[in-house]
Write the C-alpha cells for this entry.
Amino acid sequence: MASIYMLKNSKNWYYCITYNGKKYQGSTKTTDKQSAKQIAESIQTDLARETYDLPALRNKSIVNFTILWQEYIKKSTNAKNTLTSTISRAKHFLPVFQNKPVEDINTLDLKNYQLQRRLEIINNPKNKDKRESEISFKSLNHELQILHNFFNFCIEKNLIDKNPAAGIRKLNTLSRIKTLSDEDIQKLISGATNKLTRDLITFLIYTGCRKGEALNLKWDDVDLKTGVIAIKGTKTKYDRYIPISEPLKAVLSGIEKNQDSLYVFNRNGAKLTDFKRSFHTACKKAGLKDLRIHDLRHVFASKMVMGGTSLYITGELLGHRTTQMTKRYSHLVPETLKKAVNDIWSKDNMESQ
C-alpha cells in the first residue's frame, strides 16, 4: 500500500510503501501532493514488477504535464507582468500537452506543435495575402522559450534527463524597432491632451524606461541634485541608474509633488496603472500610426546609438542583461561611424589644424 506524508520543516512530500512485508520510504522530490501520489504509485508498481523479474516501466516517476506546470507557475520568480504573459501564452500549448507525462514529450512533439501553430498564424485573417517572410512568428518563439524554461525546471527536479525544446530553431521575427524624427517627437508630445500624459511620454523618450518602470517610479528614487534616477524592481530584477539630462530635469521639476502619493506619476494621489488610451489619442493627433508605448523605448535607444553612444552603454541604460538584446540596434552604427569619420577628417577640421 502506497501512502504519502509530510515531514516537519520539509517542503517535499515523502512516500511510504509496504510491500511483501518490507517498508520502503523516501522523498518524492516534489511539493505537489497530486504529483507525490503519482510518484508513490509508480514506485509501488516498479517494486511489484521487480518481484516477478520484470523491467521497471520507467526509470523516472510518471508526472502529468499540467500538474508540473501548475507547480512551475507557483514557484516562478518572474515579474508580475512577465508571469501574466507566460500564463496567457500557455493557453496555446496546455491543451496539446496537458494529459501527457513530461518524460513522454520529445523534440518531435514540440516540432509538431511548432508546425501546427505556424500554420495557425499563417492562416490568421490579418496575415491574408502576406508572404511567409512578411509574417512575424515572435509569439510562437515566445511560447517555445517558455516551454524550454519549463523543461529546464523538470530537469532540476530530476524528472527528465534532457530538454526536448533544446535545438529547435526559431522562426522569422519581424523587427518592431521604431524610431521617430525630432519633428515627430514634438508632434507626439504636443498631441497629449493633458499634462500627465505629456510628462509620461517625454519621460519615456528621455530615459528609455519600460512603462511599468515609469509608473512605479517614486520620488525617493529621483535625485535632482545629483542628477540620477534609480530604477528599482525591474523586469530583470537588477537595479539600474539613469542620468538626468537637462530636458528631463525640466520635466521632473515641473511635476508638482502630491503629498498623498509616493509616486511621480499619479492621478490625484492615486497610482497610475496605465495610460494607453490617452497615449493613443496623442498618436492620433500627431498623425502617427502603429505606435505603441513600448516603442518609445526604441526611440530612446535609436537616438543614443545614432548619436554615437556605444551599444554597451546603451544596453546598460536600457537595463539589458545580455548584449544580444542591444544588438538589434547595431544596424544604426555604420551611419554613426561614417559621420564620426567625416567629422574628424572634414576639410574644415583639417584646415584648422
